[in-house]
Amino acid sequence: MKVLVGVKRVVDFNVNVRVRSDRSGVDTDNVKMSINPFDEVAVEQAVRLKEAGAAAEVIVFSVGPDRAAETIRTALAMGADRGILVQTDQATEPLAVAKVIAALVAREAPRLVLLGKQAIDDDCNQTAQMAAGLLGWPQGTSASALRLAGDVLQVTREVDAGTEELELALPAVVSVDLRLNDPRHASLPSIMKARKKEIASVTPDSLGVDAAPRLSVLEVRPPEERKAGRKVRGVAELASEISAVLEDA
Ligand code: AMP
């Protein structure tokens, strides 16, 4: 079984993002970019499936600029077999990525597509659902545990009320939550080995996908500054502060 894994290049989660002065978006100039943390979990899971003998090949893809090849290289160093860069300098929206996934599935015939639950740049949480819809495949989103039993994938999902158990018939699309596993750190030898692994470069056009953005961002604003807190001396003072706030409201 081949496993196809999506890896997005995003602003590193440790970076304190700043809104551009013209409010058109977030400043990414000279900012550290990394693999989306949820995608690292997806790569780890795919590599574990391969190590357990359940997957024959792990193919990672990224839709993005040339530098997204670095993100693919990170996944190759973790143990993925080969990469596909779907090159575009435009912003990537979930529907366009879902169409790319459908086109790559037609080419590569994977039995499992593993994605992150969400990309931490725009927090859409839509790509897996759209890809499953376009493919007509079952989906399990926000997976915190996966068990493969023959052609059936048992998925534990994180939901508001706790967890939910699903059984999906393969082929299927699964998006993963952070609780699924602890991604490995690539060792130096695997980083060196990854340099020799193949990364094919294609474009959305060559896959027959129109990846042009369909959404326009009207304005991006930083969150309101939070007021500093203040210590109170006890319950009586806290209660009187609360009633003062309620009276003002
Ligand atoms: P989103 O729906 O944008 O929150 O993204 C959910 C998941 O879809 C991500 O965690 C990735 O696994 C995948 N994905 C989204 N955008 C891309 C992209 N440009 N390239 C590769 N995978 C992507």
Short description:
The protein has helices spanning 37-51, 68-78, 94-108, 127-135, 188-194, 235-248, and strands at 2-6, 9-11, 33-35, 57-64, 82-87, 112-116, 139-149, 152-159, 162-169, 172-176, 199-202.
Helix-strand layout with pairing:
Elements: E1 2-6, E2 9-11, E3 33-35, H1 37-51, E4 57-64, H2 68-78, E5 82-87, H3 94-108, E6 112-116, H4 127-135, E7 139-149, E8 152-159, E9 162-169, E10 172-176, H5 188-194, E11 199-202, H6 235-248
Helix pairs in contact: 2-5, 3-4
The chain binds adenosine monophosphate (AMP).
Integer count of domains:
1
Largest sheet: 9 strands, mixed
What percent of residues adopt helix (DSSP H or I)?
A: 25-40%
State the CATH superfamily name.
HUPs
Major β-sheet strand ordering: 9-8-7-10-6-1-4-5-11
Overall average pLDDT: 95
| CA distance, first residue to last residue | 60 Å
Could you give the count of β-strands? 11
